[in-house]
C-alpha cells in the first residue's frame, strides 16, 4: 500500500528533476544562441570586408576612367587646335547673345583658328567692321537694325550664322546660315562650324578696321 510519504517523495523527486532539466536545458540553449550570434557576426564581418574591397576596386576603376576621360579631352583639344589652325586668319568675328561659358569656349576656338573675337550680349547696332556675326542663344534682334544701317553706309555685309538648336531667325532679305551643332565638349561640331565660317567667307576681303562694341 502506497503511503502519503511515498507520494510526497515522488512529487519532490519529479519537481527536482524538472528543475535540473530546466537549468541544464537553459544552459545548453544559451550556449546554442551564443554560437548562433557569433556565427551571424562573423558572416556580417565577412560580408562587410567583401563590400569594402569591392568599393575600393570601384573607386580605383572610377579614378582610372576619369583620368582616361581627361586625357581624351586633352587630346581632342590638341587635335581640334591643329585642325582649325589658320582657317580664320585675319577674320573678325562678333558674338551676340549666349551665356558666358558658351561664348568663352567658342571664342577660344576662333582664336585657335587665327581669328579675333568681340563679344556683346545686347547691341543697338553693328559698328565697325566684322566678317561674321554668330547669333548665340538669347541674342537681341537689334542686330538687324544695325546691319541695315551698315549696309546703307555702303559697308560689306558680314556672314550671319545662327548657332544652336531651335532658334528661329526671321531675317527678311538678310541671308542667315544655320548651325545646329553644339560647341562645348563637341570637337567635331566645333570643327564643322569653323569650316562653315571659312567656306562662307571665301572671297570676302579682309577687314581693315577693328570691331568696336559697346558691350
From TrEMBL:
Transmembrane segments: 6-28
Biological process, per Gene Ontology: copper ion homeostasis
Keyword flag Coiled coil: yes
Gene Ontology cellular component list: membrane
Coiled coil: 34-82
Key words, A-Z: Coiled coil, Membrane, Transmembrane, Transmembrane helix
Domain of life: Bacteria
Stated name of the protein: Copper transport outer membrane protein, MctB
Organism: Planifilum fulgidum
Amino acid at each position: 500500500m502506497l503511503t502519503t510519504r511515498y507520494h510526497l517523495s515522488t512529487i519532490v523527486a519529479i519537481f527536482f528533476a524538472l528543475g535540473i532539466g530546466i537549468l541544464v536545458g537553459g544552459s545548453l540553449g544559451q550556449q546554442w544562441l551564443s554560437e548562433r550570434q557569433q556565427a551571424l557576426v562573423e558572416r556580417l564581418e565577412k560580408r562587410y570586408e567583401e563590400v569594402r574591397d569591392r568599393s575600393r576596386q570601384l573607386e580605383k576603376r572610377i579614378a582610372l576612367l576619369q583620368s582616361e576621360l581627361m586625357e581624351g579631352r586633352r587630346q581632342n583639344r590638341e587635335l581640334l587646335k591643329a585642325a582649325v589652325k589658320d582657317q580664320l586668319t585675319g577674320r573678325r568675328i562678333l558674338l551676340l547673345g549666349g551665356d558666358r561659358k558658351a561664348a568663352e569656349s567658342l571664342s577660344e576656338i576662333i582664336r585657335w583658328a587665327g581669328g579675333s573675337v568681340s563679344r556683346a550680349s545686347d547691341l543697338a547696332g553693328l559698328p565697325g567692321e566684322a566678317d561674321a556675326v554668330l547669333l548665340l542663344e538669347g541674342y537681341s534682334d537689334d542686330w538687324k537694325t544695325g546691319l541695315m544701317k551698315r549696309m546703307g553706309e555702303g559697308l560689306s555685309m558680314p556672314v550671319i550664322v545662327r548657332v544652336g538648336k531651335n532658334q528661329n531667325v526671321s531675317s527678311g532679305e538678310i541671308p542667315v546660315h544655320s548651325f545646329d551643332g553644339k560647341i562645348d565638349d563637341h570637337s567635331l561640331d566645333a570643327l564643322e562650324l569653323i569650316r562653315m565660317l571659312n567656306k562662307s567667307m571665301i572671297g570676302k576681303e579682309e577687314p581693315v578696321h577693328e570691331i568696336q562694341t559697346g558691350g
